[in-house]
């Protein structure tokens, strides 16, 4: 270390003398030259004195800047769910459509909170073409229960255009109960699979299957909870299953642990680590649930026990896990009872918001600016 410092000192002295001399060749005035050499001298002295404390100054500079960028990205990923709702009665309430349901009576709109922290992230509602650019050539897998199905529908709505002919048939096919669904949107080479996976164990099997086939989707959205709550009604079992899922996901990732680097891993072919999202459970409004069985089994107490199990599983980013939360809980809580008819499945705008949240997180993670 001493020798290094001495050599640096000599080097610094040379620079302090030679650079201003070179500048003098460039017709700088004597005062300017003195100023430059003074400034250089001070800068170099600071560097030399700091050197022993850091592996190298350049390492320091890159680590500081990556920490700053990393912090910004982590904080934006954490803020991406901060959405506020405006739900108000529609002006023309006298709808004569006998089929109109109670949720149709309310105008709902959402946006990201206007706090300075959230604004700094510049989240945007993405247009069809934004989404097409972002997802061009991607493989997206959405797996889970009915909430996941609604998210898949909402994503296709955005990419295909909600009122296209194509979307009508998608809607029909996607809602065949309890079945998988695949679509290739040729225009943008987007492949999307919906996988009906009502239990956490089904998600674990899915991960195992992908691992076995060595096929890695670009985006993997998973979520489960309600089905398990209704049919098994045992939060410890849910907790155990989530932990197994977490282990499986962690070992699945070619490149876990850092949001910071999403580059290719070393190896013959570059494999990017998939972007992973967990679809949280919606708030349940017990009195609105449509069967007696649901009202009994899906109590608030049970809901909270399931929610704790998710927290304890360390599956999510917030708890050091691999998956980014799409916070359906806060979306549904904030949209409120006027956004649901059955206390469980919510208005399309909730899942639309969820999709925009996911795409914005995706933009941050892949630091793409489109
Ligand atoms: C109401 O729903 C029924 C059956 O679902 C349908 O046949 C009818 O056309 C609908 N009416 C309107 C006004 O949409
Ligand atoms: C998708 O990407 C391909 C090649 O990367 C490009 O040729 C094509 O125009 C893109 N399509 C859209 C809709 O952005
Ligand atoms: C999901 O898992 C359950 C229990 O582990 C199993 O009985 C069922 O067949 C699985 N369903 C699918 C669609 O894989
Ligand atoms: C709940 O699940 C746990 C873990 O799988 C199991 O040990 C326990 O017996 C189950 N409880 C009931 C009431 O089935
Ligand atoms: C989305 O597209 C619009 C124009 O179509 C553009 O102004 C905007 O910057 C795009 N958003 C992103 C996130 O790139």
Can you offer a commentary on this structure?
Residues 255-270 have low confidence and may be disordered. This protein is an alpha/beta fold. The radius of gyration is 27 Å and the shape is globular. It has a domain at 113-365: Rossmann fold (3-Layer(aba) Sandwich), CATH 3.40.50. The chain has 14 helices and 8 strands. It has a 6-stranded mixed beta sheet with strand order 4-5-3-6-7-8, sandwiched between helices. It binds 2-acetamido-2-deoxy-beta-D-glucopyranose (NAG) (5 copies). Residues 234, 236-237, 240 line the site of one 2-acetamido-2-deoxy-beta-D-glucopyranose. This is Pmr5/Cas1p GDSL/SGNH-like acyl-esterase family protein. It is found in: Membrane. Keywords: Membrane, Transmembrane, Transmembrane helix.
Sum up the structure in keywords.
370 residues; alpha/beta; Rossmann fold; 6-stranded mixed β-sheet; 51% helix
Cα-atom radius of gyration: 27 Å
Strand order of the largest sheet: 4-5-3-6-7-8
CATH top level label of the domain at 113-365: Alpha Beta
CA(first)-CA(last) distance: 47 Å
Name every ligand kind in the structure.
2-acetamido-2-deoxy-beta-D-glucopyranose
């Amino acid at each position: 270390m001493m020798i290094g410092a001495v050599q640096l000192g000599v080097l610094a002295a040379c620079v302090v003398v030679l650079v201003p001399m070179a500048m003098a060749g460039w017709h700088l005035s004597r005062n300017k030259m003195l100023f430059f050499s003074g400034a250089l001298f001070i800068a170099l002295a600071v560097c030399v004195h700091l050197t022993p404390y850091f592996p190298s100054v350049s390492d320091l500079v890159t680590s500081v800047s990556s920490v700053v960028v990393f912090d910004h990205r982590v904080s934006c990923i954490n803020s991406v769910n901060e959405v506020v709702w405006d739900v108000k009665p529609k002006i023309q309430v006298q709808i004569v459509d006998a089929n109109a349901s109670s949720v149709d009576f309310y105008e709902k709109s959402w946006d990201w909170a206007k706090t300075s922290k959230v604004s700094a992230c510049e989240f945007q509602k993405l247009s069809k073409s934004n989404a097409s650019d972002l997802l061009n050539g991607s493989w997206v897998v959405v797996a889970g229960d009915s909430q996941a199905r609604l998210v898949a529908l909402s994503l296709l709505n955005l990419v295909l255009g909600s009122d296209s002919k194509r979307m009508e048939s998608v809607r029909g096919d996607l809602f065949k109960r309890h079945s998988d669904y695949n679509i290739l949107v040729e225009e943008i080479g987007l492949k999307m699979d919906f996988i009906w996976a009502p239990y956490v164990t089904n998600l674990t099997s899915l991960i195992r299957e992908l691992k076995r086939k060595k096929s890695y989707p670009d985006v993997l959205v998973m979520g489960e909870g309600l089905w398990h709550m209704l049919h098994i009604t045992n939060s410890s079992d849910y907790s155990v299953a989530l932990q197994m899922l977490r282990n499986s996901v962690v070992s699945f990732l070619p490149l876990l642990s850092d949001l910071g680097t999403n580059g290719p891993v070393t190896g013959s072919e570059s494999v990017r680590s998939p972007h992973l999202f967990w679809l949280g459970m919606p708030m349940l409004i017990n009195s609105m649930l449509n069967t007696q069985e649901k009202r009994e089994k899906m109590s608030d107490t049970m809901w909270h026990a399931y929610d704790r199990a998710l927290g304890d599983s360390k599956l999510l980013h917030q708890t050091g896990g691999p998956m980014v939360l799409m916070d359906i809980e806060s979306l549904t809580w904030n949209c409120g009872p006027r956004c649901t008819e059955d206390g469980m499945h919510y208005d399309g705008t909730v899942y639309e918001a969820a999709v925009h949240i996911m795409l914005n997180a995706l933009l941050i993670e892949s630091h793409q600016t489109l």
